[in-house]
Write a structure and sequence with these properties.
Layout: E1 3-7, E2 9-10, H1 15-26, E3 32-34, E4 36-37, H2 39-42, E5 51-53, H3 56-59, H4 70-74, H5 83-88, E6 97-102, E7 116-121, H6 132-139, H7 145-165, E8 172-175, H8 178-188, E9 193-194, E10 218-222, H9 231-241, E11 244-248, H10 254-260, E12 265-269, H11 273-282, E13 285-288, H12 296-303, E14 308-311, E15 326-329, H13 334-343, H14 351-359, H15 363-377
Parallel strand pairs: 1-3, 1-6, 2-4, 3-5, 6-7, 7-8, 8-9, 10-11, 10-13, 11-12, 13-14, 14-15
Helix pairs in contact: 6-7, 9-13, 12-14
């Protein structure tokens, strides 16, 4: 069986890319199609010789994508209107099965039933549906804000129509969570099967011993630094609660976040897996401050024995056992999170219970579920 894999943008390391990496490992001979590819960021996960980029990679930019200034590489909103035609241009007629990983455009590839198309939906494009007004509000600020907002309003309108029209193209849909399944039914009027993303086996290896002496207590965030992750909410909450905060990750919002942070907030940038495991193991809590589609970080934290404090919304509702492996704050505000931080005590949670919960989302479980769906689809 000849298989092809599709993922919209291979330009940063996030949860969707980690799931796609598992799919790429499951089908090591499958070529990988993507709109834009940053070899510097993801070359070790997805080798260049496997990747087939769209025509935009060379025609759209005067220089290779990886050499563009960081704001341009991260701000894919600048090029949204070109993406639908680019994914529709790929020819998959030589394959038996195409597996796409979609957060906005990959579900719109054209296969016409030959090959079969299985789509893993990280979420329907949130900036086209439930986050549209938030995105436009942020975009409308500044001197050029009104012009950018005007452009995006019209782009979003056209893309929303396209998104709904092409939702029938995949032969089978897999939702990353029950929350994503709800959105698929609401926006696309389609049924889907929930298969939760897996965490890597690495997180189930022996945890590092806590530092001795134990470091100053801190809360931890591990995230791509983009506005919708609401890391600003966590910075403000930790400042109000008098708790140190360590932030692991990179992204276009780093500059603005640093401006609002005080001396109790540490930006750790990129960290290796071993370093990250140590940070998880020694944290008082891992914070999930925004509404997430699923959130692998919560599971990675629990695998290290550390409980999670999350907004009561989205994917973490499906992974955190309240009172056993973590807790929730109810309102999407810094005050609500700060109040929860003041009463959150790591010693109230059993590290063994956290690890057992994380094991339910193993890679082996994910791969078995994916192969079962493929078997049903290819009958």
């Amino acid at each position: 069986m000849k298989v092809a894999l599709v993922h919209e943008l291979l330009t940063m390391r996030g949860g969707a890319e980690r799931v796609f990496r598992v799919l790429a490992d499951m089908f090591p001979d499958a070529p990988i199609y993507t709109l834009l590819y940053d070899e510097r960021k993801l070359g070790d996960w997805f080798p260049k010789e496997r990747v087939r980029t769209s025509g935009l990679q060379n025609r759209m930019f005067p220089t290779p994508y990886a050499l563009l200034p960081t704001p341009l590489r991260f701000n894919h909103h600048l090029y949204l209107k070109k993406f639908p035609a680019a994914v529709e241009a790929w020819d998959f007629s030589e394959f038996d099965l195409v597996i796409s990983s979609s957060s906005a455009f990959a579900h719109g590839i054209i296969t016409n039933g030959k090959p079969k198309h299985l789509c893993f939906v990280n979420s329907p494009a949130r900036y086209l549906w439930d986050r549209t007004h938030d995105v436009l509000e942020r975009t409308g600020k500044g001197i050029l804000g009104p012009l950018k907002k005007w452009y995006l309003e019209r782009s979003f309108h056209d893309l929303r129509i396209w998104d709904a029209e092409v939702a029938d193209r995949p032969d089978r849909l897999i939702a990353a969570s029950k929350e994503v399944q709800r959105r698929i039914e609401l926006y696309w009027r389609r049924e889907s099967t929930v298969i939760h993303p897996p965490i890597d086996d690495f997180w189930f290896t022996e945890n590092p011993a806590p530092h001795a002496p134990r470091p100053t207590p801190y809360a931890l965030i591990v995230s791509t630094l983009v506005p919708y992750k609401r890391i600003d909410r966590a910075i403000a909450a930790c400042e109000r609660a008098g708790i140190c905060l360590k932030i692991v990750g990179e992204g276009p919002a780093m500059g603005n976040l640093k401006k609002m942070a005080n001396e109790n907030t540490e930006f750790c940038g990129y960290r290796s897996l071993d370093e990250l495991k140590n940070l998880f193991a020694n944290a008082e809590a891992t914070i999930v401050p925004g509404e997430e589609d699923f959130n692998l970080v919560a599971l990675e934290s629990m695998a290290c024995g550390t409980p999670v404090l999350s907004l009561r919304a989205g994917g973490p509702l499906e992974t955190i056992i309240e009172g056993k492996t973590g807790a929730f704050f109810d309102e999407p505000t810094a005050d609500s999170l700060a109040a929860a931080l003041r009463t959150f005590k790591r010693k109230s949670f059993d590290p063994a219970a956290c690890r057992e919960q994380a094991k339910k989302f193993s890679r082996a479980t994910f791969e078995t579920a994916i192969r079962e769906v493929i078997g049903e689809l290819m009958k």
